[in-house]
Amino acid sequence: MNQVMTPSYRYMSETDIEVSRDIEINSNPVPWTDKNFLDCLRKDYYCLVQEVDQEFSGFAIQTISLDQSHLLNIGIKEKFRNKGLGQELLEQIVHASKSMGCKKIFLEVRVSNSPAIELYNKTGFKRVSIRKNYYRLPDGREDALVMSKRLKKPWRLF
Ligand SMILES: CC(C)(COP(=O)(O)OP(=O)(O)OC[C@H]1O[C@@H](n2cnc3c(N)ncnc32)[C@H](O)[C@@H]1OP(=O)(O)O)[C@@H](O)C(=O)NCCC(=O)NCCS
After folding, report:
1. Among the four 60, 72, 77, 127, which has the fewest Cβ within 10 Å?
2. Quick check: CB of 115 below 6 Å from ligand 1?
3. Is 1 inside any structural domain?
4. What percent of the chain has pLDDT over 70?
5. Which domain holds residue 84?
């Protein structure tokens, strides 16, 4: 059963890289490096931090180009999982894309990553295709599932 938690949001800065990277190390077989996060910040991607009672609970990073956005990564700290916060964060990302005029949002996810695939399904993403051998593994490669969600203009900005 999900607990009720009210998260807040702010843009990511370089001081958030360490905790974001810890989430990656604990959940991704080939985790993003500090440099991956730094590059996203320097390229001015849309990098969002979620906090609960002023504690870092998660992050999400997307790129926005013309009328499409691309979710590059999302992660919730282990102690905050299964409380509805991943879905909240994803909905913020989707809303930001809509507000900036995007008509579609795309993402890739490891085919073995059931929690994330379930989250995307629940948030209205549909399966588009499979990209063979898209992800590295410590001892090989893994396919990616490509998913997308069509976006409608929000009736108000927030
Ligand atoms: C995927 C992730 C972001 C989900 O965050 P979360 O805060 O635990 O998810 P929520 O509590 O908001 O769950 C929302 C929905 O996602 C799905 N879900 C979440 N965790 C799940 C799990 N372990 N197994 C199956 N479905 C799961 C469910 O549909 C859930 O809805 P429900 O609670 O009504 O069943 C989190 O597990 C995570 O950070 N994983 C590691 C990083 C990662 O894999 N990122 C994706 C990169 S593509």
Report:
1. 127
2. yes
3. no
4. 94
5. 8-150
